[in-house]
Structure formats: C-alpha cells, structure tokens
C-alpha cells in the first residue's frame, strides 16, 4: 500500500507546481463552488428587507399578512429539512459537480417566481425551492470543497463557506432598503445566473472520479486543481493521486449507512455534540433576528436609521467571522464555542428584559430604546466568533470519512428543523405573548446548549483524526479525555489521508 511520510507530504507533493498559482487556482474554484452558499445567504437575508415592504404595502398588488409572512419565511426551512435526505445520495450517484451545477437553475427559477408571479403561493414555492437548494448546498458543497483542496491550505480555505453565507445576507440587507421590491428581486436573480455560467467550467472532484473508476480523468482534474503543467504529473499529481486511492479503498471497505452513526459509540457521541451545537446555532435566535430585524427593532432608532443598524448587523457577522477564524486554532474550538453560546444567552436575556419593560412600563423603557440596538449588534459579534462556524468545523473533524456525508445530511436537517421552528413560532408567540417570551426562550436554549457542550464536547484543535477518535473512545468508555500516544506510522497516515470538509 502506498503511503507518504509527513515530510514527503509537505515537501514533495507539489514540488512540480507553482505554489502561488496552485493556491490562487484552488481559491478561485472554492469561491465559485461556494457561490451557492452565497445565494442561500441571500435568501436568508431577503425577508429582513422584504418584510418591511410587505407590512407597508410597497409590493404592488401583493398583500401579505403576519401569518402569511411567517409561512413565507419558514418555507425555506421546510425545503432545507427535506433536501439533505437525498442530497448525499445524489452526489454519490451523479457526482459532486452535476449536483452543485443543478443548483443554478433551481435558484434562477426561485427568484423568477418572486419577479413574475405576484402572489403568496408563488412566494411559498420560491422559498421552498430556495430551501431545497440550501439543503443540498450544505450537504454537497462542504464535501466538494474538502476533496479539491490541497492538504496545506484546506483549513484556511474552509473559512470561505462561512464568509460566503454571511456575505449573501449582507448583500440583501444593503440593497433591500434602498430599492423597490421588484428591483430587489431582479438584482438578486442575476447572481444565480452568474454562478451557473461560472461553475459549469469547474472540474469534477478527483476523489469522486476515483470512486467510479475514472483514474485518468481524476489525474487530469487533480493536475488542473493543483495548477500543474501537463508534464509535471509524474512526481506530484501521481503521488497525491495514490493517496486518494488509499482513501477510496478504505472508504469502500467500511459501511456508510445511517446506522453507523448510532451503533458506533464514538460516532454517536460526536453526533450528539454536533446536533446540539447545530440546534443551538439556529434555535438560539439568529434565524429570527436575521429574518425579522426590521419588525423587531423599535423606532425611532438612536444614532442612525433602523436599516443602517441592520446593515451593520450583517457587516459585523462577516468581519467577526474573520476574527473567530483567526482565533480558533489559538484559543481552541471548545472554549470559543462555549464563550460564544454563553454570551448569546446573556444578550438574549437582556433583549427580553427590554421588551418586557417596553410592554409593561413603556414610559420608563423609552429612555432605553438604545438597548435592543446594542444587543442586536452584540448578538452578531458573539454569534460569529464561535457558534456561527465551529459546528461546521466539528463536522469535518469528529467523524470518519465513511459516515461524514451521512452526518452532514443529519446536521443539515437539524439546522433546518430548528430554524423552521424558530421562524414559524417567533411572530405567532410574540403577537400573543410579547417579544420578551421568545427572547427569554432563546436565552434558555443558549444556556442549556452551553452546559451540554461544556460537559460533552471534546477539544479537537491541532489533533489528528486518529487522536480525536482515541479521545472519543476514552470518553465513551470511562469519561476520561486522556490522550494516548499513537503509533508514528498511524499519525503519518492520518495526516496524509485526512479529509476536512469545512
């Protein structure tokens, strides 16, 4: 069996390829592929601008009630709940590229419905289709990105996924307040067209091509991704290709059914941590704040306009993502995650206190109208520095390759379910029991999530895949998190074969 030592992996794997050229080419394909995540982010940010236009009857002959608005918002989560169940099958059956490319027409049709069919049924359908696309994106794109990236730049490029999602939200909230409803939708429809035109030229994943026995095509695509000339493949691409073949053979030998997530104790422990982190991410308030900010924030707003604060919210989401990604390998996944979720518990509790006072003591609360705006921005920063991206990191680190796509689908379903629940219940509960009820519910969710993660999450920073499995094995057997020394050859093999799907 062909294996590379750690030295050979780092120094020889790309010796015949220009490093700068390779990094730029891989980064380019990363950004093109993750544009589907950007479009999903656009659909997440769209209600924040559109809801205000609905309530002010600025949408022509289209009239939307509060109840209809809640369904419009949560239909995306319903679609997102369904699609991961078949997204994993489709990418193994037809290939990563074909499935991601198909998202272009799907998103084009969804935006076209908002443009040309002005009724609520069309909006329900458009949001449902957007949710289908988002679920497939969350399931397939991380796997594709992990398979095309080089070993030495995979972690850095993993940030693209999170930045693209926040960037899509920012795109909508920047444009939305200053253009008409139709102009907003028309501008948004251009992006999936550009995505489809750009992505059809992206090569297939070499990993997938090897799985279906197309070794020559895999070598050709890998050489393209690595920016190598045709004659440089003997010592560089062929070496990495043999590593991929090792991984493929290993994957084919192991079972990959959903049952492996539950019957294997290590997988189940890791699954519980990822599911709770994903549930806390969406049920802790981010979904409702992103969708309903224009309705939640009181008027008049301090310092600047309400929509300027919403734009600031989206900008903070993007900027603090970079800060969190710079800190996560220094501080550690677990401390940063727990600090983030605990902070969100405090912020949402203060949110609830303000709205309780505003409803019961309006005169006294009027002097503190700045509080929800401060909480709004603080929430964005606290979310982005930890819980906003670390669940995706855990997803790529805590599971063997043979069950990773299954767990990715399971995590996507979890995100969709709790986002649906949060978005659907927010307006209904707030209308009958006040905003403070929902914000205190968010606070309870965040504190509960922090407690669970403190007890059961493990630290994965700077650990190889085999080391993580050893820690999980120890914690499952006796609660100990001792690190046991691994055989050197195992560490070398793991460093060269590990696939991270950030």
Automatic annotation (TrEMBL):
It is a multi-pass membrane protein. Its main location: membrane. PROSITE patterns: MFS, SUGAR_TRANSPORT_1, SUGAR_TRANSPORT_2. SUPFAM superfamilies: MFS general substrate transporter. Residues 29-461 form the Major facilitator superfamily (MFS) profile domain. InterPro entries: MFS_dom, MFS_sugar_transport-like, MFS_trans_sf, MFS_Trehalose_Transporter, Sugar_transporter_CS. Keywords: Cell membrane, Membrane, Sugar transport, Transmembrane, Transmembrane helix, Transport. Coiled coil: none annotated. The chain crosses the membrane at residues 28-48, 68-87, 99-118, 124-145, 157-178, 184-202, 270-297, 309-328, 335-358, 370-395, 407-427, 433-453. One of its GO terms (molecular function) is transmembrane transporter activity. This is Major facilitator superfamily (MFS) profile domain-containing protein. It comes from Aphis gossypii. It is found in: Cell membrane. GO terms for cellular component: plasma membrane. Pfam families: Sugar_tr (PF00083).
